[in-house]
User: Fold this.
Amino acid sequence: WMFTGSDMAETSPGSVDIGAVTDPADSGSLPVADSVRTEAGAALAAAALVERAGALMFVPVDDLDDVVAAMTTDAGSDLLTAVMAEELYVLRRALGEAPAAVTWAASRALTVEVQGFDADAGSAFAQVWAVQVFSRERVADPEMRFVLFNLALVVDDGRWLIDQWTDAPGPAAFLAVDELPVSAAQLDDDLAGHRLMFRWQELLVAS
Assistant:
C-alpha cells in the first residue's frame, strides 16, 4: 500500500484530486513574484506548507524526497525527513499491513501569526495552529488533534521555503455537547461520495 496507481484510488478518498501533490515538479512553494516578500505572503505560505506537509502521506514513496526538497532548504529538508522517518513511514508501514480500506487524513491550518518578518533578508517566523484528522477502518476510529507548528521561513529563488520546523500539541477543543464520535465504518458510510479537499495550492496562489 503506497498510494500509487489503483491502490491510491482505492484507499484515498479524493485521490484523483491530488495529482499535483504527487508531482515533484509542482514544488508547493511560492512562484517568483513581487509580492513574495510581504508579511501576508509569508502567512499564506506558512499555512500552505503546513497543509502540504500534512498531505505527504498521499505522495508515492519514490517522489517523497523530491517533494520535500521543493518545500525546504537543506536544513529544513533534514528536519522534515526526520519527522517522516519517525511518523510517516511508520504509519504507512502499519497501514500497508492492514486490510484495504478508505483512508481519511487531512491537516488544516486554522490560524497563523507571523513574527520577526524581515523583507530585506527575505525571512520570517510563523506559528500555525492546525487541526489534523485521521480515520481508517480496522486501524483507527476517527481521531482529531490540534497542533502548533513553528516555522522559520526563508525566500530562495522567489519562493518561501521551510528552514526550521518544530511542532507541539496546541490548544484543543471539545466536541459540541450534541455531537458524538463515530466509528471509522460509520464515517465511511456517512461520507460516501465525499472527497478530501486540498487547498495548499490555492493559498500559494493567493499569497
The first helix runs from residue 5 to 11. The mean pLDDT is 78. Helices lie at 5-11, 39-54, 64-69, 74-96, 184-190, 200-206.
